[in-house]
Amino acid sequence: MDYKLDYITRMLSKISHKRLESYVIHRIWNALDNTDIHFVFQQYVVRKEGKYALADLYLPQLNLVVEINEPAHYKNQEADIIRNTEISEYADIKVIDCYNVVNGNAVACSLEELNQRTDKVIEFIRERINENHLLPWKGADTPEEIRQRGVLKVDDNVSLNTVDDIAAIFGTKPKHRGFLRASGVAVPKCANEIVWWPNEKHSKWCNELSPDKLTITEYPKEEAERRGHMMSHIDKGIKRITFLKYTDWLGMNTYRFVGVFRLDKEKSIKENKCVWVRISDTYQLDNQL
């Protein structure tokens, strides 16, 4: 299935149980009718004192959050104001109220009122789009686009759908071990470099990315096999150009470039596991492939 179609239909299905929020977001999506605009639902936003918020709708190209307040928000107005103030430090914010206050109570507004409030935000978004030269939302990257750029950068959030796409960037193909596909492949013409695509949810292996994303700890789940695996890598000096497999909240699998890693010998021996430490957040591609 086309990536954008898969993405947006999964997004919309995730909010189908929130009737008013779903209606408003559908109206915005249909009114804009622009597949170059990236919609993100339930965007994670870091708040103060270790708290976080999930913004209803985030448009990353415009750095704009749209909050859709259903009547339940009225019960926690003070907390909502603090939450939205903290979100506004992260991005611009527009609020669409789906209720009116009647005799001190929150009552859902009429369809006409909700449409008018939503349409004001839609007009604001259109103005923002016209004011800014936006790079179109591409969906997933393609190997050709990445090779044309000539460099991999963590900050670019490079993500690919399959290991075949990853290998294609380097002008090679994944290898197989019997019926199983290997978790990496050598980079052509580059000694001691492999492309690696670990899976955090592998049935037999642990591949743990640290919270700061600077270390990956790799080891077999079978404890008796750990030392042998670690010792087989300890003195090779291999660099791993790494794409970690993610399953996002939509259930979509992607492989995201997380940097270039090298084994830390001391930490690996101490932990009896392969401890890969990031040595670079960029990788220069060979454009002669």
What features would you describe in this structure?
The protein folds into 2 domains: 3-131, Endonuclease, Chain A (3-Layer(aba) Sandwich), CATH 3.40.960; 143-284, no CATH class. Helices cover 30% and strands 32% of the residues. It contains 8 helices and 18 strands. It has helices spanning 3-14, 19-32, 77-87, 111-131, 143-149, 163-169, 226-233, 265-271, and strands spanning 40-46, 52-59, 64-69, 92-97, 99-102, 105-108, 151-153, 159-160, 176-177, 180-181, 184-186, 193-196, 205-209, 215-220, 239-247, 253-263, 274-280, 282-284. The radius of gyration is 23 Å and the shape is elongated. The relative contact order is 0.11.
Number of helical elements? 8
Question: Order of SSEs, N→C?
Answer: HHEEEHEEEHHEEHEEEEEEHEEHEE
Beta percentage is 25-35%
Coarse shape: elongated
Largest sheet: 8 strands, mixed
Summarize the amount of helix as a percent range.
25-40%
Give me the Rg, rounded: 23 Å
The whole-number mean of residue pLDDT values reads 88
Structural domain count: 2
Low-confidence stretches: none
Please tally the β strands and state the result.
18
Report the structural category. alpha+beta
End-to-end Cα distance: 29 Å
Topology:
Elements: H1 3-14, H2 19-32, E1 40-46, E2 52-59, E3 64-69, H3 77-87, E4 92-97, E5 99-102, E6 105-108, H4 111-131, H5 143-149, E7 151-153, E8 159-160, H6 163-169, E9 176-177, E10 180-181, E11 184-186, E12 193-196, E13 205-209, E14 215-220, H7 226-233, E15 239-247, E16 253-263, H8 265-271, E17 274-280, E18 282-284
Parallel strand pairs: 3-4, 12-15
Antiparallel strand pairs: 1-2, 2-3, 5-6, 7-18, 8-16, 9-10, 11-12, 13-14, 14-17, 15-16, 16-17
Helix pairs in contact: 2-4, 5-6
